[in-house]
Amino acid sequence: MEGSPSRRSRRLALAAGTVLLCVVLAELLCRWLVPPPMQVEVQVSQPVLVPADASDKVLRLTKRPGQGGVYVQTPTGRRLRPSTTAVIEKHAISGAQVELRTNSLGYRGPELGEKTGRRILFLGDSITFADYLPEEESFVRQVETLARGKGLDWETVNAGVGSISLKTELAILLETGLSVQPDVVVLGWYLNDFQDSPGVEVHSPGFLARHSRLAFALSRLGKPDPGVGVLQVPWKKWWAEWTQDDLPGLVAGNPERAAFYQEVGTAFYDWGGAWSPHAWEEMRPLLAEFVRVSRRAGALPVWLAFPARPQVEAAFDASLPQQRLAEVADELDVPLLDLLPLLREVDGRTEAPLFYDQCHHTSEASRALAQAIFTWLETL
Q1: Are 338 and 190 within 8 A, CB to CB?
Q2: Are 312 and 189 in contact (CB under 8 A)?
Q3: Which of 83, 178, 198, 274 is positioned for an S-S bond with 321, CB 3.0–4.6 A?
Q4: Taking each helix axis from N to C terminus, what angle separates 277-296 and 166-175, rounded to the nearest 10 degrees?
């Protein structure tokens, strides 16, 4: 015989109360054991994994510092082999013979001694690394030379690595960059910095995960850890959406614009992807994490924005990605030097080429960049 309605109500209330109490206890336990959700998670490996034979290694390479040569792979992406000298005969980009030397941290340049003045750490990809130029012609080293020529005790540190993106650059900053006690952390941003990399995750926790540690813990169950190797962003889907939603308005029936944005579409897996809103969904939290980590360490974060060659040579304003970066810089109160106007101005007054390809700068462009960067840093 069933109980009275009031008895059933009491049982339901008791059951609901028991469930609620269990949820509350589970939430409290998770708040004690589970760290709060973060948009950016980095699997930092300390120390960086390198081959056992990395010390004082001398290499002779043909065209590029390839994997198994200057480059080594770690759980959080590509690095330079520490304590290595490599002579590259007839570099594939510049055609020059280039000597690369790395210090014990895997940075291009000499061993770092005791800090005496203003130490400026440069992070970036192959544009910053500049392995196709002699070290003294790289803009990173030239900034130091210009500073010391004016009696300033500056030391520039080149932590650039070829073919990496924001994710790996952030991992380098956390693994070794902060250990050099930089006063300034310079991020050399390029249009393809949205690309993926192992060991670093960007995710957007939902409403429940942001407000409940239990919900966050449950959402992470069964999620695989990122492994070694380069992952792929869904650029084909981004390209299809951009082609349908954005491209017609950008072209607006103009043949010059049509030719430019055809290049953007062709390179959407690379620099062209910076025109996609999805790329900025990936990059915004990483840029914010750069700022948070740098400031927490007492360093000033600043950004350089490097353009692609077609942007410099376009007959119209093609700076949409730089405009988006400027919006993020304003939000985070970060100094930003957009180098597109400088290179457009230099390109307009010189016959000398500024690029070897889509993004890598000639010696002349490197000198102009160094002067502009030094002048700007001097004001900060």
Answers
A1: no
A2: no
A3: 274
A4: 10
Pairing state between β 200-202 and 184-189: unpaired
Nearest to 219 by CA among 232, 200, 199, 203: 203
Q: For residue 135, which amino acid is it?
A: E
Q: pLDDT value at position 14?
A: 76
pTM for the model stands at 0.83
Contact 380, 300 (CB under 8 A): yes
Tell me how crowded residue 81 is: count the other CB atoms within 10 A of its CB: 22
Strands (E), 30-159: 40-42, 57-61, 71-74, 77-80, 84-88, 98-101, 118-123, 154-158
Report the candidate in 249, 247, 257, 251 with the shortest Cα–Cα distance to residue 315: 257
What are the phi and psi torsion angles at 120 (to 5°)? -120, 115
Could you tell me the pLDDT band of residue 41, with boundaries at 50, 70 and 90?
low
Please give the torsion angle defined by the CA atoms of residues 273, 278, 279 and 285, in that order, rounded to the nearest 10 degrees: 180
Whole-number Å distance between alpha carbons of 357 and 340: 16
Structure confidence by residue, pLDDT tens digits, 224-243:
444 434 445 688 899 999 99
Cβ count near 67 (within 10 Å): 10
Number of residues that make up the chain:
380
**CA 271/CA 189 separation, integer angstroms:** 11
Task: Calculate the average pLDDT of the chain.
Answer: 85
Q: Which residue has the higher pLDDT, 225 or 184?
A: 184
**Which of 40, 23, 12, 13 has its CA nearest to residue 283?**
40
Write out pLDDT tens, residues 94-144: 999 899 999 999 999 999 999 999 999 999 999 999 999 999 999 999 999
Domains of the chain: 5-43+205-220 (no CATH), 104-202+225-378 (3.40.50.1110)
Closest CA to 88 of 128, 132, 51, 130: 132
What does the alpha-carbon distance between residue 104 and residue 90 come to, in Å, rounded to a whole number?
26
b/e 3-36 (16+ beta carbons within 10 angstroms → b)? eeeeeeeeeeeeeeeeeeeeeeeebeebeeeeee
CB 36 within 8 A of CB 213: yes
